[in-house]
Structures are given as structure tokens and as C-alpha cells.
């Protein structure tokens, strides 16, 4: 019970919820597309069971990710991936990735589509959430992962449209989320077992690497976004 009173627990929970909102926006689209052909009386069941299956699968994946992060150099690789994900968040692809999501008129077919699609799309979420959970350390890891994901379910499923509108109106939310991923990348990388032989990852060093990661994502994201219009459609607003 003491772990739920620890400040680092609630900081990590907040990070997980923000990560899920920013990186899990596609989940609501996938759910809608997968259930669009179901009869009205089965749609709610399809949404609930499909989402539950996807969340359970994601918890399992994050459990393995937390275990793998103990292997030397994997935190460094994960940090690099998070930097790339953060930059990609600031410079999103123009093309939609949902054209291949097929709807089903059968409940089990829709549930299976949701779970499989979420598995394919969850790599970025899993890496980012595992990094946030790992930063809390000790016994906090899996409880806060499960708690954070459970809290984020209604936000993703029912509040996604509101979140999308808020991000459209206040772009700084996306920038802050991208910098959060950079922060997690920095604080995670500095604790890689391979670096333990060279220095002790003190709190000051973690903060320094976290700030450096956040600023790196911001700088590269702005740079790429500034150069992108030259190759993009001139009619596309930036």
C-alpha cells in the first residue's frame, strides 16, 4: 500500500496516461473501423471485449519489456527508439495507416481485428510505458503499468475525439508529449547496465540526461518540421 503513496509512483502514472493519450489515439480509430459492420446491439460488446483483450496483451508485452530492459545496451537502444518516436510525433506522417483495417459483421471477428491491430501498433506504446515504469523502480513497476493503462482506457475509447480536438487547438500538448518521450529516453539510457561500470547514475545525472533528451527531441523535431514543407504539398498547411 505504501507504493501508492510514493511521489514517483504518481509521476510515472501521469506519464503513462499522457503517453497512452498521445500514442494511443489510433486505437479509437481502429476500434471504430473494426466494429463498424457489427449490428448495433453487438457494437458495445465488440468495443469492450476488444479493448479489454488489447489491454491485457499490452500488459503482457510490457512485462517482458521491463525484463528485457535489464539486459545491457537494450536501454540505450530503447532510448534511441523513444527519441525517434518523439520526433515522429512532432512530424507526423501525411498518409493514414488505417486503410487496411477490415470491419467484421461477427463479434469474434471484430474483437480479433482490434487485438491484432493493437498488437501491431503497440510497439511505441510498450517501449515508452516500460521506460516510464522502469524509472519508478522496484515494486512500483507492474502495479503502476496496470493502473496507468486502466485509467487511460476510458480516455482513449470515449475521450479520444476530445483529446484530438484539444491537440489541434493547442499544439503545445503534442510538443510537450514528444519532449516527455525524450525525457524518458534520457533517464532510461543513463541507467543502462552497460554504463554502470563507468559512472553511478545519480539523480542529478538522470535529470541532466532527461533534459538533454527532451531538448534533443524538440530541436530535431523543429528542424525536420522546418525542412519538410520543401518536399511536401505546398497547399498543405504547416
TrEMBL record:
* Location of this chain's protein in the cell: Membrane
Transmembrane ranges, per UniProt, are 12-35, 47-67, 73-91, 111-132, 144-163, 170-187, 207-225
Its main subcellular localisation, reduced to a broad class, is membrane
Keywords for this protein: Membrane, Transmembrane, Transmembrane helix
Which GO cellular component term is one of those annotated? membrane
> Does Thylakoid appear among the keywords?
no
Report membrane topology. Answer: Multi-pass membrane protein
Q: Which domain of life is it from?
A: Bacteria
Family according to the record:
Belongs to the TerC family.
For this protein, the record's NCBIfam families field holds: R_switched_YjbE
Record's protein name:
YjbE family integral membrane protein
Whose protein is this, by species? Answer: Rivibacter subsaxonicus
